[in-house]
Design brief:
The structure holds two protein chains of two kinds.
Chain A: H1 3-35, E1 38-42, H2 49-64, E2 68-72, H3 80-93, E3 97-100, H4 105-114, E4 121-124, E5 133-138, H5 141-155, E6 160-165, H6 172-187, E7 191-194, H7 203-216, E8 220-225, H8 228-241, E9 248-252, H9 256-264, E10 269-272, H10 275-290, E11 298-300, E12 304-307, H11 314-320
Parallel strand pairs in A: 1-2, 1-3, 3-4, 4-5, 5-11, 6-7, 6-8, 8-9, 9-10
Antiparallel strand pairs in A: 10-12
Chain B: H1 2-13, H2 17-87, H3 94-106, E1 110-117, E2 122-126, H4 141-148, E3 154-155, E4 159-161, E5 169-182, E6 185-196, H5 198-206, E7 214-218, E8 224-226, H6 230-235, H7 243-247, E9 251-255, E10 262-268, E11 275-281, H8 282-333, H9 347-388, H10 391-407, H11 410-428, E12 434-436, H12 437-454, E13 459-465, H13 467-470, E14 473-475, H14 479-491, E15 498-507, E16 510-517, H15 524-532, H16 545-556, E17 561-567, E18 571-579
Parallel strand pairs in B: 13-15
Antiparallel strand pairs in B: 1-2, 1-6, 3-5, 4-5, 5-6, 7-8, 7-11, 9-10, 10-11, 12-14, 15-16, 16-18, 17-18
Helix pairs in contact in B: 2-3, 2-8, 9-16, 10-11, 11-12, 12-14
Organism (chain A): Brevibacillus choshinensis
Keywords (chain A): Signal
Family (chain A): Belongs to the bacterial solute-binding protein 2 family.
Chain lengths: 325, 588
C-alpha cells in the first residue's frame, strides 16, 4: 500500500470520526430545542379582573407544562374588529395551538379560517357546536342562570315578583343565562317575572332603567342582573334610592364593585365563574390537543353562589380576590 | 471493502491472527470504555443529583432566611407600635396618632394599625378610614387568638382585610392583647397590625426550582400560607399532599403520590413554625442523567466503531503477509516452485519470507539438478543400447561371418554367431540396467571373440577376475565401449600384434576394472579431451569415454568413475571404479 493511499485512509477515518462525534452531540442537544410548544391565547379584553385571572391561570399552566404563551387582548370588550387584528398578528407570530375567547361568531369564523387544519382550536367562555373546535371550556351559563334564579327565589321567600335585567343581549352566554332563569320561574307558580326593556350596556342607561322598573313595579322584590356591568349599575341605583333592604339583587361575576356591594349588603348574592380554571385548562388542553391526545369536547369549569356569609371563607378568598396587591 | 468483509468472515471461521487481534482488542476496549462510562455516569449523575439536592436546600435556606428576617422586622415594628401605645396617655392622643402615621408612611408594607375593644369596637385606627359593615371582625382568627392568648403575638394566615373602606388587600395580621389606661382603670384591648402579604408573595414567586418546581408555605396545622397553585387546589384541579410535610421540620424525601416523582424539601421558619416546602421535579434532575447516559452510549458506539475500523486495518496489515506467505507455500505444495516474490510486512514475516525463498531457491536448484541427471543417465543408457545394435557393427560382423562361410571355416562361424547372440542377450538382459560383474565380463569376452574374428587374430586378450567380485553388481555395458576404443584407436593401426588385458578386482573396498592395451596410446592433450568429453573420434560406436564416466557418477556418486593413463607408443590403461555391491537378490 502506498504512503499517499494510507494517509488518505487515515484522513478519511478522522473525518468519519469527527462527523460521528458531532452528530452524537447534535442528537443530544436537538430534542430540547424543538420540544417547547407555543400556545396563543386571545381573550376579549386586556383589563378587568376576569380576563386578568384567565391570563393568570394560563400562565400557571404554561409554567407547569413548560411552553411559550403568547397573550393577546384588545383594550375594550366586544371589540371584534381589533380582536380579529390580534388574531392575524397571532397567526404571524406562529403557534402550535390556539385558545380563543371570541367576542362574536364573526371572530370565531375568522379564527377557523386563519388557523391551519392541523392546529387545534379551543374556545373559552363561549358556547358553540363547531366541528373545527376541539374543546369548549367555560361556564355552563344555563346552569348559572338557574342558580341565580334559585338563589333569588330563596331570598324573597319563594313568593313575589322579580325582574330580570340585562336580557336581549346577542351573546349566546347571556341568552343561556336568561333561559336558565326563565326555566326556574316556569316551575315556580308563586314567583312572577315583570317585563323589562332591553338597554344598551351603559351604566347611566341601566340606572334609568332600574329607576323606571322600580317606579312601574313597586312590589318587585328582587332583581337578577345577567352580567357584571349590569349588576353594578343596578346596585348603584338601588343604593341611591335607599331600597337595598327592600329589593334583593342577585349579581353575576365578582368585580371589586360587586364585592363591595356584597359586603355592604346591597347585593345579596353573586354567581361567580372560575376564570382561573378556564385559563389553566384552556392552555393545558390546547397543549394536549396539539400533541394529538384526546381532550374532552366540553369542559364546565363550574360556578359558585357567593353571599355575604361565605364571601370571606378562606377557600373563597382566592377565588374572589385572585390578585395579591 | 468487500475484500475486508470476506476477510473478516474468513477470520471468524478459523481463529486467525486477524480475528484474535480484532476480537481481543475490541473486547478490551469495550470493557475499558464500558467501565469508564459506567464510572463517569455514576459519578456525573451522583453529582447532578447532589447538586440538585444542594441547590434546592440552598434556595429554601435563602427563602427561610428572607422570611425570617422579614418577620423579625415586622415583629420589631409591632413591638414599637405596642410600646408607643402603652407609653401614650390615651389612644386618641394627637401625638400617638402622628407617630403611628409616620410608621405607616415609612413602612410601605404596613397596611394599617388598629386597636379594638374586646367587643370589636374600633378604638383607634391608622390610617383613619371608615369601617366597613358586616366585617365580622370578632369572628376573625387574629381577634380570637388575641383574646384567647393576650400575651402572645399571633400571626394570622394571609387573608383579605375587610375592615376598612377602600381596596381589599391581602394581609397577614399580627395581633396581641394590650392593656390601655382608661379613666376607670385598665381596659383590655386588641392591637392589630396588618402587614401587606405582597412582599411574602413576591418572595416566594421569585423562587424557581428548575423549570416546573416551586415553593409553597404551610402553617403549623397544614393551612396554605402561600402556594402558587392555590386556586387550582381550592377548585380541585390540583392536589398537594400536605400531611407528610407536616410531620417533618427539616429534610427531603421523594414523593410519588401525584403521579410524578417529585423531590420534596422542607424547612421550618423559626419565628412561626411555618414550613417552607420546595417541590422539584425529579424528571428534570433525571433529564441531566439521561443526557449523560445518552452521551456515554453514543461515545461507546463511536469508540467501538473506530476501534473496529482501526483494529481490522492493523490486524489485516499484520496477517496479510502471513497469509500471502501461506498462499505461496500452498502453491509450492501444488508443485509451482516459481511462486511469489519477497513479501513486505513486519520484520519477522519478512525474515520468514526471505528464508522461505532461499529454501525454495535451493530446492529448485536441486530439483533441476536431479532432472538434468536423470535425463543424462537415460540418454547415455540409450546411447549404449544404440551402440549395441549399431547397424555398422552388425553389418561388419555379419560380413565376416559370410566371408568365413565362404572360406569354409565353419567352426569360426559357429563361434562368431554364438558370441553375437550371447552378446545381444546380455546387452538386452531383459531391460535391466544392472547386471553382475560376471555377466559384464562375459559380455566383453563375447565382444572380444567377435572382434578377434573380424581382425583376423590381430590381437590377443586376457580376462581375469577375482572370485569375490564376480557376484558384485555393476552397470551394464561399461567395459565394451572402452574395449572398443582400445581396438579401434589403440590396436587397429598398430603393426605389431596387440594385447588387451581386462581384470576385475576388489581394491580398497571398491570394484576395479582395468582395461589395458599396448596400442598406440594418446598424447596428453587427447587424453584430457577424451576425459572431458570434448574429443570426438571418427567412427566408433559414438559412446564416449566421458559418457561412461558420467553414467557411473550419476549412478554411484562422486567417488567413482574412470581413470585413464596413456603413453604414446606404450599403451593405455583405463581404470573403472564402481562400488562393491554384492548381488544379494538372486533374480535370474
Amino acid at each position: 500500500m502506498g504512503t499517499i493511499k494510507r494517509y488518505t485512509l487515515y484522513t478519511l477515518l478522522m473525518l468519519i470520526a469527527i462527523t460521528a462525534f458531532y452528530s452524537c452531540e447534535a442528537k443530544v442537544e436537538d430534542p430540547k430545542q424543538s420540544k417547547k410548544k407555543t400556545v396563543a391565547l386571545i381573550v376579549r379584553m386586556k383589563h378587568g379582573d376576569y380576563w386578568r385571572t384567565v391570563k393568570l391561570g394560563a400562565e400557571m399552566a404554561a409554567k407547569e407544562y413548560d411552553l411559550n404563551l403568547n397573550f393577546y387582548a384588545p383594550d375594550y370588550e366586544e371589540d371584534s374588529q381589533s380582536q380579529m387584528e390580534l388574531l392575524r398578528q397571532a397567526t404571524l407570530d406562529g403557534y402550535d395551538a390556539l385558545v380563543v375567547a371570541p367576542s362574536d361568531d364573526q371572530v370565531l369564523q375568522e379564527t377557523i379560517g386563519l388557523a391551519q387544519s392541523s392546529v387545534p382550536i379551543i374556545t373559552l367562555d363561549t358556547e358553540g357546536q363547531l366541528p373545527q373546535v376541539k374543546s369548549y371550556i367555560g361556564t355552563d351559563n344555563y346552569d348559572m342562570g338557574k342558580k341565580a334564579c334559585e338563589k333569588m327565589v330563596q331570598l324573597i321567600g319563594k313568593k313575589g315578583h322579580i325582574a330580570l335585567v340585562g336580557t336581549g343581549r346577542s351573546t349566546a352566554n347571556a341568552v343561556s343565562r336568561e333561559k336558565g332563569v326563565r326555566d326556574v320561574i316556569a316551575q315556580d307558580k308563586q314567583v312572577e317575572l315583570v317585563p323589562v326593556d332591553y338597554v344598551q350596556l351603559d351604566k347611566k342607561l341601566i340606572g334609568e332603567l332600574t329607576r323606571e322598573l322600580v317606579r312601574h313595579n313597586p312590589g318587585v322584590k328582587g332583581i337578577i342582573a345577567l352580567d357584571a356591568s349590569t349588576s353594578i349599575g343596578v346596585a348603584e341605583e338601588i343604593e341611591k334610592m335607599g331600597l337595598q333592604e327592600k329589593i334583593k339583587i342577585v349579581a353575576i361575576d365578582s368585580p371589586p364593585e360587586v364585592l363591595e356591594y356584597l359586603q355592604e349588603g346591597v347585593i345579596s348574592a353573586t354567581i361567580i365563574q372560575k376564570p382561573f380554571s378556564m385559563g389553566y385548562l384552556g392552555v393545558k388542553y390546547a397543549l394536549e390537543a396539539s400533541e394529538g391526545k384526546q381532550v374532552p369536547e366540553r369542559v364546565d369549569t363550574g360556578t359558585k353562589v357567593i353571599d355575604r356569609d361565605n364571601m370571606f371563607w378562606s377557600e373563597n378568598q382566592k377565588l374572589l380576590f385572585p390578585f395579591v396587591k | 471493502m468487500k475484500r475486508l468483509l470476506f476477510g473478516v468472515v474468513d477470520a471468524i471461521k478459523a481463529k486467525s491472527i486477524q480475528f484474535i487481534i480484532t476480537t481481543s482488542f475490541t473486547l478490551v476496549t469495550v470493557l475499558v470504555v464500558l467501565f469508564v462510562g459506567v464510572m463517569l455516569y455514576s459519578k456525573f449523575s451522583d453529582t447532578a443529583e447532589q447538586n440538585a439536592y444542594l441547590n434546592t436546600q440552598q434556595i429554601l435556606e435563602q427563602v427561610k432566611y428572607n422570611l425570617d428576617s422579614y418577620l423579625i422586622g415586622t415583629t420589631q415594628i409591632f413591638e414599637l407600635v405596642d410600646d408607643k401605645i402603652r407609653r401614650s396617655q390615651s389612644v386618641t392622643s394627637e401625638k400617638l396618632n402622628e407617630q403611628l402615621e409616620a410608621i405607616v408612611e415609612t413602612r410601605k408594607d404596613i397596611v394599617s394599625i388598629a386597636v379594638f375593644s374586646k367587643k370589636g369596637e374600633l378604638l383607634m385606627g391608622t390610617p383613619a378610614k371608615p369601617m366597613r359593615n358586616n366585617s365580622k371582625l370578632t369572628e376573625q382568627s387574629w381577634f380570637r387568638s388575641a383574646i384567647d392568648d393576650p400575651n402572645n403575638l399571633s400571626f394570622s394566615l394571609p387573608h383579605i382585610q375587610n375592615l376598612f373602606k377602600g381596596e381589599y388587600t391581602w394581609v397577614v395580621s399580627m395581633s396581641r392583647g394590650i392593656t390601655l389606661k382608661g379613666e376607670n382603670g385598665d381596659i383590655p384591648a386588641v392591637l392589630l397590625v396588618d402587614v401587606n402579604f405582597k412582599e411574602i408573595d413576591d418572595l416566594c414567586q421569585r423562587v424557581g426550582l428548575g423549570k416546573k418546581g416551586y415553593v409553597y408555605i404551610i402553617d403549623l396545622v397544614g393551612n396554605i400560607v402561600y402556594h402558587p397553585q392555590q386556586q387550582l387546589i381550592y377548585v380541585g384541579l390540583k392536589n398537594e399532599n400536605r400531611s407528610l410535610p407536616l410531620k417533618y421540620s427539616y429534610g427531603s424525601y421523594v414523593d410519588e403520590t401525584e403521579g410524578e416523582k417529585r423531590l420534596i424539601t422542607i424547612k421550618t421558619v423559626d419565628q412561626l413554625g411555618w414550613k417552607i416546602i420546595g417541590v422539584s421535579y425529579m424528571d428534570e434532575i433525571v433529564t441531566t442523567k439521561n443526557e449523560i447516559s445518552r452521551f456515554i452510549f453514543w461515545l461507546l458506539i463511536f469508540v467501538i466503531v473506530i476501534v473496529l475500523f482501526v483494529l481490522s486495518y492493523i490486524s489485516a496489515k499484520i496477517s496479510r503477509p502471513i497469509k500471502m506467505l501461506e498462499r505461496s507455500m500452498e502453491r509450492v505444495e501444488q508443485g509451482d516452485f516459481t511462486a511469489g516474490g519477497p513479501i513486505r510486512g513486519s520484520q519477522e514475516v519478512e525474515q520468514l519470507s526471505s528464508r522461505f525463498h532461499l529454501m525454495m531457491d535451493k530446492v529448485r536448484e536441486l530439483m533441476n539438478q536431479i532432472i538434468a541427471e536423470q535425463e543424462a543417465k537415460r540418454k547415455s543408457e540409450l546411447e549404449v543400447l544404440q551402440a549395441q545394435i549399431h547397424p555398422h557393427f552388425l553389418y561388419n560382423t555379419l560380413n565376416s561371418v559370410v566371408r568365413m562361410v565362404g572360406i569354409g571355416k565353419n567352426e569360426d562361424v559357429i563361434t562368431t554367431i554364438t558370441s553375437l547372440s550371447k552378446l545381444f542377450r546380455i546387452s538386452l538382459s531383459r531391460g535391466k540396467s544392472i547386471i553382475t560383474v560376471q555377466e559384464e565380463l562375459e559380455h566383453v569376452r563375447h565382444y572380444l571373440i567377435i572382434q578377434k574374428m573380424r581382425y583376423k587374430q590381430k590381437f590377443e586378450y586376457e580376462i581375469e577376475a577375482q572370485d569375490e567380485v564376480l557376484s558384485c553388481k555393476t552397470l551394464k555395458l561399461l567395459l565394451q565401449p572402452i574395449v572398443e576404443n582400445a581396438i579401434y584407436h589403440g590396436i587397429e593401426h598398430m603393426a605389431d600384434p596387440g594385447f588387451i588385458h581386462i581384470s576385475a578386482s576388489l581394491c580398497e573396498g571398491k570394484v576395479l576394472f582395468q582395461v589395458r592395451d599396448n596400442g598406440l596410446g594418446m598424447s596428453p592433450e587427447v587424453l584430457d579431451g577424451v576425459l572431458a568429453g570434448s574429443y570426438k573420434s571418427e567412427g566408433g560406436s559414438g559412446v564416449g569415454i566421458h559418457n561412461i564416466h558420467e553414467r557411473i557418477r550419476l549412478s554411484y556418486g562422486e567417488g567413482y568413475g574412470l581413470e585413464m593413463e596413456s603413453e604414446q607408443e606404450v599403451g593405455t590403461v583405463v581404470k573403472v571404479w564402481i562400488p562393491c555391491l554384492p548381488d544379494d537378490a538372486q533374480e535370474g
